[in-house]
Write a structure and sequence with these properties.
The complex is a heterodimer.
Chain A lengths: L1 H28 L2 H30 L6 H6 L6 H6 L5 H23 L7 H22 L23 H16 L1 H13 L4 H32 L10 H26 L3 H24 L14 H21 L16 H33 L2 E3 L2 H21 L10 H24 L5 H30 L4 H11 L1 H25 L2 E7 L4 E4 L2 E12 L3 E12 L2 E6 L2 E5 L9 E4 L1 E4 L3 E10 L5 E9 L2 H18 L5 H15 L7
Antiparallel strand pairs in A: 2-11, 3-4, 4-5, 5-6, 5-7, 7-8, 9-10, 10-11
Chain B lengths: L1 H29 L1 E5 H6 L8 E8 L5 E2 L4 E7 L4 E7 L11 E8 L4 E10 L8 H10 L1
Parallel strand pairs in B: 1-2, 5-7
Antiparallel strand pairs in B: 2-4, 2-6, 3-4, 4-5, 6-7
Classes of the chains: A alpha+beta, B alpha+beta.
Chain lengths: 669, 139
């Protein structure tokens, strides 16, 4: 089975080279048979990588300890589901997954666009093949998941217990699909540059694929945040760790891209900008993979470290030089078709949105590489921590939320004063009303007040849009529900986008509340003693111990009272995993979480003593749930936006018609 | 037309300047030197009472946990040791011999008062040493 795996990877490497050569040769000489065979090659690479992955998963499930990867990441007491997920617990397996995901994307692109856009597609395929060649090269020759050990150990090292969590099973996978997904819009951009087909095709495909990657990255980030919150036990969900930033940066750049492509579609502007943005987004995705995989920047994530760093840097340099070289070569074909007319217009709102997203990405990038940069320049390593990232990004985020409210309602080209009053009066009043109410309730934090006011403003504009659209349809005799459903389903992109905005608003509310209004307390309690925490009382009822096959657990039994009324029992744990000997990490603190829409009670058993007393750390994190709900709303909106449109055939017919009008010779079908 | 363009240039310049200022101010006020134990000791007494981050290996047998979860331990670079005190959440993987990263101030009584404690075991991660140990144990 393992031979099958390594042979498959090797063949996939050879065929990827063939795909690259054949697609370019075929396109340049117009021998479409070669392009067709390159497409088939891409499918073959996909099949081979599926076989390789199955081979590795098979070895993981059956605990074939003769493989180094299996011995390092599993053990006999590991549940089957986590044997499978250890596919992405280590370096080599993650890279195999990278290759597999890329081959899936490539196969979908090939199957979707056979016989379409024949000038563009071969170069798109060639770009995808080039990226595959690099990654398959790494797993074929440098960091093979099928590397054998010189002996067969009786037992493997096992999986870190904090990785044995349902979110850990799905979060890295989602993030990977996002990271790798960025390759596809980039490949369409490069395909356009290489083929010279810089019209609307590439931007249409790129937009759609960028949305897919963006959604997976965003959801992956949120799942990671939730995992950290539940598992790491420090009470927060985001720490500006380099590994988090690594995924956040391409997300920021992709967000800028999916907004600015709209201007190119609608007004034929910003062509150079969009091309640069997608190259930048891909660079950040590869750079993120590099950070997480090379260990160059120290992170609390104990990721694998190895010597693939220089190789990655070489690849990044190649990508940047080649793509910006191509960009300069084609720069004359990327001239704009229109120019900006007024600073009060939707176009300029988008420009500012883009600049701010890039500003944020730049600030995060700088903060992440600051230790390396400062060491190179001054000789001493200097870090910037969470305070830096918060100080820079919070103001940027606030302005962005403001623009999120402005963008959808301001007119294209030039907004008149009348337009502004008509559209923004109600949302602005809503924002002001929010501030007044919150002040009356005693909230004093200025940043939080601004954030909540802006959230109300955005919500106001989005609902205005939904209300107006629905009302217009209702005048045509549809009932409310029907009008609303049709409004959304006939304009999926627009209203899906608004739903995403509502998701973001919910996330911002949750993040603001939970970062500004945290209450934290720690106490060592004897049996029967209590601690008070903002309206809650926790009574410690003693320690309890139990043993399972995998662990020895110590539980602190706590009873929770709210305003003197008993409402719940809470049981934080501290576990010592069995299996002493070769596993380095055997302790795990199990957080007890009581979550409502109002607040989260976050209880950690941080220590216990011989005399039966326990040290309890308790936190009240307000409105954290809003973040996860916001994530679901965001996902819903994104799915609506991406969902294939039923009216597509009609639009295409219209486009063909306009083409045949200009060129009346043959195409009048 | 020119006037319109000028407005854009001004607006873009304002954004660029604001972001740059935020970055500059953020770095200036939050930067922390990252030192090894050796580098820290070389900078005594200048380093007293400035915020720094230090990494070193936890000296086996020096970890003392107070009942109030106050923690004392030593970290080393192999030749020199420093005393560290810390109060707060202790990472699960914190133990003898792991690499600890502490952030805080080195006080005049030569005790490092940490307010952040991170722990990691990167060197062992992809190492097969432990598997060899296991092989010997099972033979």
């Amino acid at each position: 089975m393992t031979e099958t795996g390594s042979i498959s990877i090797f063949l996939a490497f050879i065929i990827s080279i063939y795909v690259l050569v054949a697609s370019i040769y075929g396109a340049r000489t117009r021998k479409w048979d070669f392009v067709r065979s390159a497409e088939n090659g891409a499918i073959a690479v996909f099949v081979l990588l599926v076989i390789a992955t199955i081979a590795l998963v098979h070895s993981l499930i059956n605990l074939d300890f003769s493989l180094k990867y299996v011995a390092l990441n599993t053990s006999t007491d590991l549940a089957t589901i986590y044997r499978i997920t250890s596919l992405w617990a280590g370096q080599a397996g993650s890279l195999l997954l990278w290759c597999l995901v890329l081959s899936v994307y490539t196969a979908i692109v090939v199957l979707q666009s056979r016989n379409k856009d024949r000038q563009l597609m071969p170069y798109v395929l060639a770009t995808l093949a080039t990226v595959s060649i690099f990654f398959i090269f790494v797993i074929a020759f440098i960091e093979s998941p099928f590397e054998k050990l010189p002996f067969i150990p009786k037992e493997g090292r096992g999986l870190n217990p904090i990785l044995q969590n349902a979110y850990m099973a799905i979060h890295p996978l989602t993030l990977y699909v996002g990271y790798v997904g960025v390759t596809v819009p980039f490949a369409f951009g490069m395909g356009a540059l290489l083929s010279g087909k810089l019209g609307d095709e590439w931007i249409r495909y790129s937009r759609k694929w960028a949305l897919v990657a963006w959604t997976f990255l965003g959801i992956g980030l949120l799942l990671g945040a939730r995992w950290a919150y539940l598992e790491l036990g420090w009470g927060g969900y985001w720490a500006w760790d380099p590994v988090e930033n690594a995924a956040f940066m391409p997300w920021l750049a992709a967000t800028a891209f999916i907004h600015s492509v709209m201007i190119q579609e609608k007004r034929g502007m910003l062509k150079k900008w969009n091309m640069s943005l997608i190259i930048l987004t891909f660079f950040l995705a590869i750079f993120g993979t590099f950070i997480t995989r090379s260990g160059i920047i120290s992170s609390v994530h104990s990721f694998a470290q190895s010597d693939i760093g220089p190789l990655f840097l070489g690849f990044i340099a190649f990508i940047l030089l080649f793509s910006f070289g191509m960009f300069l070569y084609r720069i004359n074909d990327l001239e704009t078709e229109n120019s900006f007319e007024s600073i009060l217009s939707r176009e300029s709102a988008f420009i500012f949105n883009n600049l701010l997203f890039l500003g944020a990405a730049f600030a995060v990038f700088l903060g992440t590489i600051f230790p390396i940069l400062s060491e190179a320049v001054t000789g001493s390593k200097i870090l910037v921590g969470s305070p830096y990232f918060n100080r820079v990004n919070v103001p940027i985020a606030l302005v962005l939320i403001f623009l999120m409210g402005v963008g959808p309602l301001i007119s294209w080209r030039k907004a008149s004063f009348k337009n502004l009053v008509k559209n923004f009066l109600i949302p602005i009043l809503l924002g002001i009303l929010t501030v007044i109410v919150l002040l009356a309730l005693g909230m004093k934090d200025v940043k939080a007040l601004i954030a909540f006011a802006l959230c109300a403003f955005v919500t106001g504009t989005v609902f205005t849009e939904f209300f107006r659209g629905t009302r217009v349809r209702m005048k045509r005799g549809e009932n409310f529900l029907m009008a609303f459903m049709r409004l959304v389903s006939r304009n999926k992109r627009r209203y899906g986008g608004y739903i995403v905005h509502i998701g973001i608003v919910l996330i911002v509310i949750g993040v603001t509340a939970s970062s500004v209004f945290v209450t934290e307390k720690q106490a060592t309690l004897n049996k029967g003693e209590s601690m008070e925490l903002r309206g809650y009382t926790l009574r410690f009822d003693g320690l309890e111990q139990y043993t399972t096959d995998a662990k020895n657990a110590t539980v602190a039994n706590l009873t929770l009272f709210e305003d003197g009324r008993e409402i719940d029992t809470i049981t934080p744990e501290k576990n010592i995993y069995k299996y002493e000997g070769n596993r380095e990490i055997n302790q795990e603190t199990e957080v007890a979480l009581r979550s409502t829409y109002k607040d989260d009670l976050y209880i950690i058993l941080s220590g216990f003593n011989e005399d039966g007393s326990a040290t309890i750390r308790a936190m009240i994190n307000p409105m954290v749930n809003w973040i996860w709900i916001g994530g679901l709303v965001l996902l819903l909106g994104a799915v609506i936006t991406i969902w294939p449109s039923g009216t597509k055939s009609r639009q295409e017919a219209f486009v063909r018609y306009t083409v045949s009008e200009k060129d009346t010779t043959v195409k009048a079908s | 037309m020119l006037k319109g363009k000028l407005k854009f240039i001004v607006a873009i310049a304002v954004i660029a300047l604001t972001v740059s200022y935020l970055v500059y101010g953020g770095v200036r006020d939050t930067m922390v030197y990252y030192l090894t134990v050796e580098e820290l000791m070389a900078q005594v007494p200048a380093v007293y009472d400035t915020k720094v981050r230090v990494s070193g290996t936890v000296v086996p047998g020096t970890i003392i946990k107070d009942t109030n979860s106050a923690l004392k331990f030593q970290i080393t670079d192999g030749t020199q040791n420093i005393d560290v005190t810390y109060e707060g959440i202790i990472p699960d993987i914190f133990a003898d011999d792991v690499e600890a990263v502490v952030e805080g101030v080195y006080a005049k009584n030569d005790v490092f008062e940490a307010d952040i404690l991170l722990a990691k075991c990167p060197t062992k991660y992809e190492s097969t040493d432990s598997l060899y140990e296991n092989k010997e144990a099972s033979n």
